[in-house]
Each structure stands twice: as C-alpha cells, then as structure tokens.
Specification:
The chain is α+β, with helices and mostly antiparallel strands. Helices cover 28% and strands 33% of the residues. InterPro entries: Imm8. This is Immunity protein 8.
Length: 112
C-alpha cells in the first residue's frame, strides 16, 4: 500500500480584499510517498473565504470548483491539518491510484 505524505505547503499567490474575511489564496502542496521526499509531486489547492466565494458567484452566477477549501479565517495550519486528514484516506496500491484519490481534493500537476 502506498501511504501519501505531505512534505511542504507553499503559498503561490494571495489576493486579499479590503477586509480580512475576503481572500483567495493559491497553495501548492508537495505530496509523495511517505518517507521519500524525492517522490513528491505538486498538488494545487485554492483557499477562499465565504465572502470571496459569494462575490464570485454573484458576478458569474455559477462557480464550479475542485481543489477548493473554504474557511472563514485563513490559517495555514488548519489547511495543513485538514490536508493530512484527507491524505490518511488516500492510500492505494500504486502511486497513480493514490494520486488520483488525492486529486479529488487537490489539482494534481500531472492531470490531463
């Protein structure tokens, strides 16, 4: 069984509104096979506030998202903790199957 491990989170882009409860943040997560940091591949997640998401829906009428975490107050530790909980349920027989399970929640760099 392949056990995935989160090696690193990197904030790639941040867009903050005028208030602290209005944000959109792009994060790259380096995830690979437990104990082998060289196996890490990049998964992207977006963290947004309900306020920002509401504004987006108001403008477009519809938003569809995978790889989206919604939180009232941005806290990178909370994002890390939740991602680790998700990874605990993504073990599969092969890395490809494991990565596909993770990609239900984050956007895998090698997706077609």
């Amino acid at each position: 069984m392949i056990i995935p491990e989160l090696f690193c989170l990197t904030i790639m882009d941040e867009d903050w509104g005028e208030e602290t409860d209005d944000f959109w943040i792009e994060i790259e997560a380096d995830i690979g096979i437990k104990g082998d940091s060289d196996s890490a591949e990049v998964f992207t997640i977006y963290v947004t506030s309900p306020k920002r998401l509401g504004n987006m829906v108001e403008k477009s009428g519809l938003e569809i998202a995978r790889g989206l975490f919604i939180m009232k107050d941005f806290n990178i530790k909370s994002v890390e903790d939740r991602l680790k909980k998700i990874l605990a349920h993504c073990s599969r027989k092969t890395w490809n199957e494991t990565a596909l399970a993770i990609s239900r929640y984050a956007i895998w760099e090698y997706e077609n």
